[in-house]
Task: inverse folding
């Protein structure tokens, strides 16, 4: 049924409501004032951010957390360029997201008008689809397609440019139906072939990752692993697809992988890669699996047929979404796991040993034991706590030592984007205010998007932020010492008082420099965030020489100097 005449902005907001949008993130701009006006009378919560990069990260985190497209609005030019980091993250992380960009009017286009950019060219390689809506009467069509593309197959970001004059134009046009995500399903013959390959295996390993996962899919894949006695690993920053306390969970396959788990991946005679792209981070620079033909028999399951065979020629390639495939695997007649049943307990024991206190802390000389801090957190916080982080060596303490609960308890960028942790934590607390949310952030990481603490205060998002302050860009410094020992350049930082900064924003802030002081500080942060619904920052000040759980900057430098002199 055709609606009475509406403005383009109203048609667009009505379409958002048709497609079930409840929250949008963004920074306002004069280029889409009509959308802002239409949002005023809608039931959509518009979260106002302090910078477009933070807004895009929040939308991406929303997409990860809910499985629905994260919605972001920014203005043209500078707003769009700032938001690009979130779009790139959504693309590499296979996260459904739609970015709307206010655009110059069609009467000014192709003149390099004020802040004009051709977004089809700008975003061409980092989005699933980029388009510009030039006619108000076609908004419902474009919107339906945007949601369909963002959620079907391999999920990802869509970018729509909105010319200013189009948004104020009037049109009589009907709304569409709500979008319906489409995923492929395996054939019964493919499931039968997978089962046959499993019966022939002696050292199988199940590797989980990628997008399209749901609670039901996770439950089904757990049932499949249990029925067939399979050890289960999770790809880089997808550690929450199986409860890490589950007997079959044996660790994460990513940066800083447990060497014994890496050996198991290499020695597997059947690797069932369910969901991950098998990219550089998951394959340790394409070294765990030979390319293009792996030594392991490989079953690769992925929602995008174009991904299958693009790097690795698997023996069995299955195009399928996680829910559809996991349901069929759970219903598959189990095989006899006697040949490899012992490997589950062995690999689990190796994981426990890998998660023990690192030697650098065992002598008690370090005032702040970062490993013990994670143990204190694990003991004090709920099992379904959401952990967010961006990029940096500090994230190792979350990835290696935190035991993630059920899906979705980990929000982290596989794109390696710094600045993700704070916005993701704020978004998670806004979306699910009853859950405990903790953000791990390095000092360099925090300063990139820390202004979103103001957003947390404005929307009473009581998350806890753990700031790892070692006064340096630690990861780059580590590589610098390895390649150019003793020549420190461009990696030193002079930081503010992060605890005082948190208080200035309206939250709570504390500084911790000794291990014994952390548990009480964490308890105070939990109480404050629960009672006040405001953020709390715990700043950890510690020796930057303690760069990783397994090495110090001093040892890295000395080893590099010795290698260069030999």
Result:
């Amino acid at each position: 049924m055709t609606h009475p005449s509406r403005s383009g902005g109203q048609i667009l907001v009505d379409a958002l409501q048709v497609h079930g949008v409840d929250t949008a993130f963004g920074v306002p701009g004069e280029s889409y004032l009509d959308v802002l006006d239409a949002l005023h009378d809608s039931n959509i919560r518009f979260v106002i951010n302090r910078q477009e990069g933070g807004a895009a990260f929040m939308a991406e985190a929303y997409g990860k957390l809910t499985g629905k497209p994260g919605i972001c609005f920014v203005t043209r030019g500078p707003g769009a360029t700032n938001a690009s980091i979130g779009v790139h993250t959504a693309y590499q992380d296979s996260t459904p997201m739609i970015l709307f960009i206010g655009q110059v009017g069609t009467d000014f286009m192709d003149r390099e008008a004020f802040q004009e950019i051709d977004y089809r060219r700008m975003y061409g390689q980092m989005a699933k689809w980029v388009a510009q809506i030039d006619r108000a009467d076609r908004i419902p069509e474009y919107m339906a397609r945007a949601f369909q593309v963002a959620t079907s197959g391999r999920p990802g970001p869509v970018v729509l440019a909105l010319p200013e004059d189009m948004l104020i134009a009037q049109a009589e046009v009907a709304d569409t139906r709500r979008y319906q995500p489409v995923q492929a399903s395996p054939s019964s013959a493919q499931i039968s072939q997978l089962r046959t390959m499993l019966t022939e295996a002696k050292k199988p390993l199940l590797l989980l990752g990628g997008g399209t996962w749901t609670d039901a899919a996770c439950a089904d894949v757990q049932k499949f692993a249990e029925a067939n006695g399979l050890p289960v690993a999770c790809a880089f920053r997808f550690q929450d697809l199986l409860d890490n306390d589950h007997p079959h969970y044996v660790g994460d396959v990513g940066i800083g992988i447990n060497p014994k788990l890496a050996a198991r991946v290499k020695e597997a005679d059947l690797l069932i890669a369910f969901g991950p792209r098998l990219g550089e981070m998951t394959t340790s620079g394409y070294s765990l699996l030979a390319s293009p033909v792996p030594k392991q028999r490989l079953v690769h399951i992925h929602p995008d047929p174009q991904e299958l065979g693009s790097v690795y020629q698997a023996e069995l390639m299955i195009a399928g979404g996680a829910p559809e495939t996991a349901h069929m695997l759970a219903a598959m007649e189990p095989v006899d796991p006697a040949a490899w049943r012992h490997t589950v307990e062995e690999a689990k024991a190796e994981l426990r040993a890998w998660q023990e206190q690192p030697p650098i802390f065992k002598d008690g000389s370090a005032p702040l034991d970062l490993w013990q801090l994670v143990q204190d957190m694990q003991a004090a916080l709920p099992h379904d706590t959401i952990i967010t982080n961006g990029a940096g060596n500090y994230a190792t303490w979350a990835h290696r030592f935190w035991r993630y609960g059920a899906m979705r308890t980990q929000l982290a960028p596989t794109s390696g984007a710094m600045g993700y942790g704070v916005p993701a934590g704020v978004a998670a607390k806004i979306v699910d205010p009853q859950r405990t949310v903790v953000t791990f952030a390095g000092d360099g990481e925090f300063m990139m998007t820390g202004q979103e603490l103001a957003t947390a205060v404005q929307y009473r998002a009581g998350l806890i932020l753990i700031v790892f302050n070692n006064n340096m860009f630690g990861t780059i410094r580590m590589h610098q010492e390895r390649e150019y020992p003793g020549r420190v350049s461009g990696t030193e930082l002079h930081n503010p008082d992060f605890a005082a900064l948190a208080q200035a924003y309206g939250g709570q802030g504390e500084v911790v420099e000794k291990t014994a002081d952390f548990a009480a500080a964490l308890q105070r942060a939990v109480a404050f965030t629960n009672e006040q619904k405001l953020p709390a920052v715990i700043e950890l000040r510690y020796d930057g020489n303690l760069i990783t759980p397994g090495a110090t900057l001093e040892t890295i430098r000395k080893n590099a100097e010795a290698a260069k002199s030999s």
About this structure: The mean pLDDT is 95. The longest strand covers residues 97-103. DSSP finds 22 helices and 20 strands in the chain.
